[in-house]
Amino acid sequence: MFDSLSERLQGVFRTLRGEARLSEPVVEAALREIRMALLEADVNFKVVKAFVDRVRERAVGQDVLRSLTPAQQVVKIVRDELIALFGDAEGGLRPSKSSPQVVLLLGLQGAGKTTAAAKLAKWLVRQGRHPLLVSTDVRRPAAIEQLNVLGRQAGLRVFDPAGDLDPVSRATGALTDAKNLGFDLVIVDTAGRLHIDETLMQELTAIRDAVKPDNALYVADAMTGQDAIKSAGEFNRHVGVTGVVLTKLDGDARGGAALSVVAVVGVPIAFVGVGERLDDLEPFQADRLVSRLLGMGDVLSLIERAEQVVDRDEAVRLEQKLRGDDFTLEDFLAQLKTLRKMGPLEQVLGMLPGMGGLKQLGDARPDEAQLNGVEAIINSMTRAERRSFKLIDGSRRRRIATGSGTTVEDVNRLLRQFQQMRKMLKVVGGAGAGGGTRKRARQAMAMLKGRGLGA
Amino acid sequence: MGVFGRVREGLRRTAQQLLGRFDEIAQRADAPERRTAKVDAETAGALEELLITADVGVAAADRIVSAVQARVRHGESLRELVKDELLSILEGTGAASPRSGSPTVVLVVGVNGTGKTTTVAKLAHLCKSQGEHPLVCAADTFRAAAVEQLEIWARRAGVDVIRAREGADPASVVFDAMAAGKARGRSPIIVDTAGRLHTRTNLMQELQKIRRIAEREVEGAPHEVLLVLDATVGQNGLTQAREFMATAGVTGIVLAKLDGTAKGGVAVAIAHDLGLPIRYVGVGEGIADLVPFSSREYVDGLFEESW
């Protein structure tokens, strides 16, 4: 998400090599680039100014620690200051004792409120909660229908009294329904407008007063420009905002708005939306975002995601197999499927350090279609072939190629790579006992790179 | 309210915010004794801040500021200098008027949530009010209830919709729409596509497929590819435009939600960096609230004092 920003900072720091002290001209050169990068990332002008001043104050004249290069020293200062800017607030929902709890979602048109509502509900289900959804958007054509459809897709309960077109009574109705049916949390989706609209603000305050939300989350598009803080501020002033959900962070938006909203409006970021699938919502973590901002990758998020989709028993079984000699094409297929469950490949790879600039890979970038091909090839094998690849001779290869709609060369390539992978895995697997899910995630990634990028 | 009135109304928020600060800056720079002097560094700095705050982008802001600073003034106000420069950027796109065909095919593309579906309906309404017989194609088969939303809007505009069930291949709906358009003698055919982030290769390829189908079915199609940008978008709008231009062959921009607080300043950055013209602006939530863009009106609107 912050790719271009991190590239830029890395570029600056590459020029800062071998200096014993951070001299003023050097720091100024770096600051100019940082300023530019932050502005191009849509960080608010005033925030940029204040930020650059703070970094300057701390950086100029500082001795470079023996253990660090000058570049690392500046990165460290920038990193510390960025984390300080985000504050130490943890993401997620504010805890509350009330039951059912109420979460109100607010925001401009098209920020992604309805989708965020469904994503949040799914996240809550994963936390063992029982959310009930309700839409109070009686204006946008088919908005209520959209939430119903999302609810059906995700197996979520949506409260929708047909014919009731009063936002307040829809919200309070959901609250009563939740109490009666034992839901412990109600998510209220609201109409989106441009915030200049007094009627909407009144409607929102009326809903707020009726349902007394424990959390009022402002849903903001990560691509928003300098206007972000104004709208967030306005919603905060009228309705009261407890946190921000930053959506569409899976694009290449640098999300400078995130910095600005936190710094200027003083509202913490609660969640970030990182993809189109309904599972793609994560509690916000400042240190991760900052690490990523500075090109250190987002390995923690990746591991957490792997844990979400990897079945533990399955992982232990596979781990044992890996150490032995019996890793088969069947296991490989299972691995591949697990990996793909973690989300679109580009997104998963984007979290790895140094993989920020996926775009630069150009044609070498891993291709989902290519993976479909691999799955097809393995699926076209007989069970015996999958368990013992040595069986697969020339005529079997031809049959497999025809069956999977690929060519014999494709089948050959896959088998070659599979053998290489087995060799590699034996080394990795034999290296140490223990490990577990996290280790599995690392190995999965190693395999993926062998397949997707080394080809 | 006439067309012009609506644009002004839509721009009012934009203008108020730009103007308040601009007046402060201009007052100093336009004092009688300075009117013939070059614009000083302090003013230039303030102007840069103002432009960047309006999402105009660092590159375009730099160009405007240095051009203004380089001008020898013969009593022109700062306002005039900035206006001139903005105009030359917006008009410098060398925008040819959109091509037409029989039927004319217009693709509407963009990232999620910018207002594509609404824009499609408004555009159909605009065409209809100009005596054309548009047909709308609901090729957003991905977002839940997108087709329903378009149908409700199209009813308001009194325009037919060609639709398929949710989850169908969008290219097949486009194919149907081309066939229906030719059979019923409708033009333009306005295609609503699903929102997609420009970083998603596979979805961008889907867009190319839609394009190919249109090319194959109607000569010279698509005649126009409009990228809908949310006026609140920041510098990412530039990236969006660049990517959609490369894969979908975007020919123009629609600036939606200009009636909000945001200035849509990134359109200036897009005109400056990519030479893409703005074709329409969305100035309200009603069906008639889409109007053809005029750079003079836009710039005048931004800097007019009297309203």
> How would a crystallographer describe the biggest sheet of chain B?
8 strands, mixed
**How far apart are the termini of chain B?**
15 Å
Strand content of chain B: 5-15%
Shape of chain B: elongated
The CATH superfamily label of the largest domain in chain A reads P-loop containing nucleotide triphosphate hydrolases
Strand order of the largest sheet of chain B: 3-2-4-1-5-6-7-8
Give helix % range of chain B: 40-55%
Strand order of the largest sheet of chain A: 3-2-4-1-5-6-7-8
Low-confidence stretches of chain A: 353-364, 429-441, 448-455
Strand/helix succession of chain A = HHHHEHEHEHEHEHEHEEHHHHHHHHHH
Describe this structure in words.
The complex is a heterodimer of chains A (455) and B (307). Chain A is of the alpha/beta class and 455 residues long. Chain A has helices at residues 3-14, 24-40, 45-59, 70-86, 113-126, 143-154, 167-181, 198-211, 228-238, 256-265, 286-293, 299-309, 312-323, 329-341, 345-350, 368-379, 383-387, 394-404, 408-431, 437-453, and strands at 101-107, 131-135, 157-159, 185-189, 215-221, 243-247, 269-273, 281-283. In chain A, strand 7 (269-273) and strand 8 form a beta hairpin. In chain A, helix 16 (368-379) packs across helix 18 (394-404) and helix 18 (394-404) crosses helix 19. Chain A is flat, with a radius of gyration of 25 Å. By secondary structure, chain B is an alpha/beta fold. In chain B, strands 3-2-4-1-5-6-7-8 form an eight-stranded mixed beta sheet, with helices on both faces. In chain B, strand 5, helix 9 (236-248) and strand 6 form a beta-alpha-beta unit. The radius of gyration of chain B is 21 Å and the shape is elongated. At the A-B interface, helix 2, helix 6 and helix 9 of A face helix 2, helix 6 and helix 9 of B.
